[in-house]
Amino acid sequence: MDAQHTASEFAGNFPTIGAREADEASPFVTMWLHPRRTMRRISSTYWETWAIPIAMLGGAGSALQGVTPRQVAFAESIGVEGYGLIAVAAALAMLGSAVYVMVFGRLVSFTGGWLGGESDHEAAKAAIGWSHLPLALMLPIGVLVVVILGPSAVFLEAGPAEAGGSMLLALAGIAFLVTWIWSTVLTVASVREVQGFSVKRAIGNLVLAMALPWIAIAIVLIAGGLIVYLVDVAG
Q1: Radius of gyration of the chain (CA)
Q2: Which member of 5, 165, 168, 185 has the greatest number of CB atoms within 10 A?
């Protein structure tokens, strides 16, 4: 029944069964299956301020699913190894997630206005940040993997023989895939609610927000190249 309610809410048909319970429960509970109602409930309230902390926890959880060679190199360059390296990777991911929510929330709000959206920056930031809630679940799972198998288990360059515990790593990988998919679903549903969009327009809003920085960079590079070319021609 919960899955049916989630699907109907995502599509725009709000369920009547359990609505009162969803409104009375903590947003940390209702966000999983009632993202649109949760966004409506926390709008302009204290709960909006939880967006960045939730995203930071989600970033740390994601980092523990795979430490990149670049992160390893950075940590080793400052003399950090082993469990300290994992802590550095998680800290960097938390910082990056905080910046991501603030910047991407503004981009979603800004580009959504082109499509007739209704949200301000704070509402869009809350939608993006709270949608990281499933990824935050990966933090204790990642810690468990590191404790059982050691820090090298989450190094992306480590092979199966080096990492060991292939079954545990496979289960953690499946869990991460599921939480990432659910986080994406929550993002679309949350943006849809705060912007007053249909599902298709909410997806378009997110795609446009992701594409805008790259479009801006491309324009700057093209303009810079054109200026250099004109200067060379004039010279």
Answers
A1: 21
A2: 5
What angle, 0 to 180 degrees and rounded to 10, lies between the N-to-C axes of helices 166-195 and 51-63? 150
Q: Is residue 174 part of a domain?
A: yes
The domain tally of the chain equals 1
Q: Is residue 10 part of a domain?
A: no
Show the DSSP H helices in 12-65 as ranges.
Answer: 19-24, 27-30, 35-42, 51-63
Residue 20 lies in a domain: no
Domain that holds residue 222: 50-234
What residues does 67 pair with on adjacent strands? 155
Backbone torsion region of residue 12, taken as left when φ is above 0, otherwise alpha when ψ lies between -120 and 50, otherwise beta: left
CB 23 within 8 A of CB 41: yes
pLDDT tens-digit series, residues 156-209:
555 444 444 678 778 888 999 999 999 999 999 999 999 999 999 999 999 999
Show the CA angle centred on residue 57, arms to residues 54 and 62, nearest 5°.
125
Evaluated on CA atoms 125, 130, 134, 139, the torsion sign reads positive
Location of structure tokens 């679309």:
188
Q: Roughly how many angstroms between the first and final C-alpha of the chain, as a whole number?
A: 73
Position 7 in a domain:
no
